[in-house]
Design a protein that fits this description.
Blueprint lengths: L14 E5 L2 E7 L14 H8 L4 E6 L5 E5 H17 L7 E5 L4 H12 L3 E5 L5 H11 L3 E4 L2 H6 L12 E4 L4 H8 L5 H9 L6 E6 L9 E5 H14 L1 H4 L8 E4 L6 H13 L2 E4 L5 H11 L3 E4 L1 H17 L3 H22 L8 H21 L6 E4 L6 H9 L3 E8 L4 E5 L12 E2 L3 E5 L4 E6 L5 E4 L4 E3 L7 E9 L5 E6 L4 E2 L5 E2 L2 H8 L4 E7 L6 E7 L1 H10 L14 H15 L8 E6 L19 H7 L1 H7 L3
Parallel strand pairs: 5-6, 5-7, 7-8, 11-12, 13-14, 14-15, 27-28
Antiparallel strand pairs: 1-2, 2-18, 3-4, 9-10, 10-20, 15-16, 16-17, 18-19, 19-22, 20-21, 22-23, 24-25, 26-27
Family: Belongs to the ATP-dependent AMP-binding enzyme family.
Keywords: Fatty acid metabolism, Ligase, Lipid metabolism
Protein name: Acyl-CoA synthetase
Amino acid sequence: MPSLYSPVPPLMEPEIRRLDGVVREVSVPPLVGQMRHGSLADIPFDNADAAPGDVVLSRKAQDGTWKDVSAAEFAAQVLAVAKGLIAEGLVPGDRIAIMARTTYEWTLLDFAAWAAGLVTVPVYPTSSVFQTRWILQDSGAVALATESVAQAAALGPELDRMPDLRHMWVFEKGHVERLAELGQEIPDQEVTVRRGVLGPDTLATLIYTSGTTGRPKGCVLTHGNFFAEVDNAIELLHPIFKAKTSDAASTLLFLPLSHVFGRMVAIACLRARVKIGHAPSLQTEDLLADLGSFKPTFLLAIPYVLEKVFNTGRATAERMGRGASFDRAAGIARRYGEAVEARQHGTGPGPSRSLRAARALYDPLVYRRIRNALGGRVRHAICGGSPLGRRLAAFYAGAGIEIYEGYGLTETTAAATVTPPQKPRLGTVGWPLPGTRVRIAADGEILLSGGQLFRGYWDPHAGGVVDAAPGGWFATGDLGELDDGGYLAITGRKKEILITAGGKNVAPAPLEDWLRSHPLIAQCMVVGDRRPYVSALITLDPEGVAHWRRMNGKHAVPAELLTDDAQLLAILQRAVDDANRLVSRPESIRRFTVLPRDFTEEAGHLTPSMKLRREAIARDFADAIESLYAK
C-alpha cells in the first residue's frame, strides 16, 4: 500500500491535446502503478500487520461517545465475520446484498464479505420493494443483510420470487455478531486461502446505478478498479490523507455507502489508515450533533450539504439582526478565495493587505461559526455529485475550508477528475485523476478512460458482463468543456438538452444548480423542449420558508398557500433573474411556477442520489407545465 508518510508527490501537469485550436483531450500520468496482485480484502490485515495500534475507525456508543477501533481490532472482527459467512455455506463468487444506512456494520460486512471471497451488492435503504427485488433477482444474490426488521419484513411477500436468496440477516437484531459466533469452528486458514485466490481482476462489487430512466443497471467493479482509484486519490490529495500533525486526519461518513462516492472514500480511508466514523442519520439536528462530537478534519459532501450549511449560517445571522454583516463577510470570503486562486495560477498577487485584514476581522464572527457547524476542525471537503458552483467554492475557500471538487460516475469507481491541491480553478471539476484520460467528443460528450473504468454492465442473460467501453473509452452521457489549462467544466447532460421551438439548444443543469443554491428553493426543473421559451418548476425549501416567514411576520401556513404570495414570488423572480445572467437571452427562464409540494424519492421524482427523474416530474406536473405556456 502507499506509504502513510511518503514525501509529497510533485504536482503532475496534464498533457493537453488540441484539435483546431480547441482542447479535446487531457491526461495525467498515474502516481501509483497498477496493482499486480492482492485485493481489497487484504487492507484490514495489512493494516494490522503494519500498525496494529493505529486507530482506523471509531464507533458511536449508546451514550453518544465514540469508541476507537484499532487496526488489529478491526482485522479480528473482519476475520470473525468472514468465518461466519463461510460457516453459513457461502462460496467464493456468491453475491451478498447490503441494504442499510451508513453504519459501522456496513463497512465491517463489506470487508468480511471480500475476505470470504464474496461479491457485495449495495442496495439503497430507501429503495422500494420493487427496486430491491429487481436488484436481488438480477444480481443473483444469495444473501441479504438489512439494517432494520421493517426492511426485511417488507420483502417477505416477494421471497418466493427470489429463489436464489437463501439467507437474511438484520443488523439491529445483532446478526453480524451472531455470524462471528457461528464461524468460531472455521479455521483462520480458510479465510487466508480465500483471500489468496483474489486478485485485481476479481469482481469486487456490483453497484446498481440509480437510474433516472428505466431499471437500474449493475456496474461490474473489480478490486483493481478500486485500487487504481483510491491509491492515486490518496497520493494526489495528500493534504487530506497524509496529515502528519497531532491533528490526525479523520472523516465522518454520512453519505450513503450504497453510492460509489461514499464507498470509495471509506476504502481510501482504510487504505491510508485515516480514522472513519459513521453517521446514519441525515436529519439536520442528528448530523450536526454527530459532527460536533466526532470533530472530523475533512468531509465528503454533495453540494446540497454545503449549500445547506451556508444558508443556515445566513438565516442564523439574519435572526440575530446581522444579515447584512453576513453578506459582507460572504463577499469578502469570495474575494479572498478568488485572490488566492489567482496567486496559485500566477495571474495575481494574492489577497491584498486590506482584504487579509477584513478576512481576519470576520473570521471569529462568521467563518469560525461555519467551521464549527461542521465540527470545528474541518479544513478540507471532497465534493461531488453535481457542480458546486464558483460562488460557493470561493466562499468556502475564503472561510478556511478548501474544496476538492470532483466528477465521476459509478462506472468510473467514483472520481475521474478532481481539483489538484494548491492549484484549484473555481467553477470546474479539476484535472483528470492521475492515471485517467478525459476526451471531449465532437458533440461535446465527455469520454473517460483509465484504470478505474469498470469492466462493464452485469447481464446474467448475456453471460455475465457486457462491455460498455469500446476501445477503452466510456461515453458518459454528460457534456463538458476542457479549458486551456486542462480543467474540465460540466455543462449539462446529453439526454437532458432541451431544444426550443426556435431551435436553441439549452442545457438545464447550470440554471437548476444556481437556483437550488437559493435558501428558499428546494428543487428546480427547467422545461422548454419544443416550446417557444424556457420555463421552470420550482419547489420550496421548508426550513428556508419557515425562516422567511418568521423574519417577515407571516403566519405559518401550508406551502400550497404560499405559491401565489406576491412577496415570495418577487424574491424568487430576483433569483431567476440572477440565474439568467449565466446564459443568453434565448436560453433564459421566461416564466416559472411554484409547486405546492417538493420532489421526493418516495413519489418517484428523485433518484436515491438526488437526481431528477424528469419524465416522472413532467408526467405528474403536466398541468403546471401547460399553464406556463398558456396564452
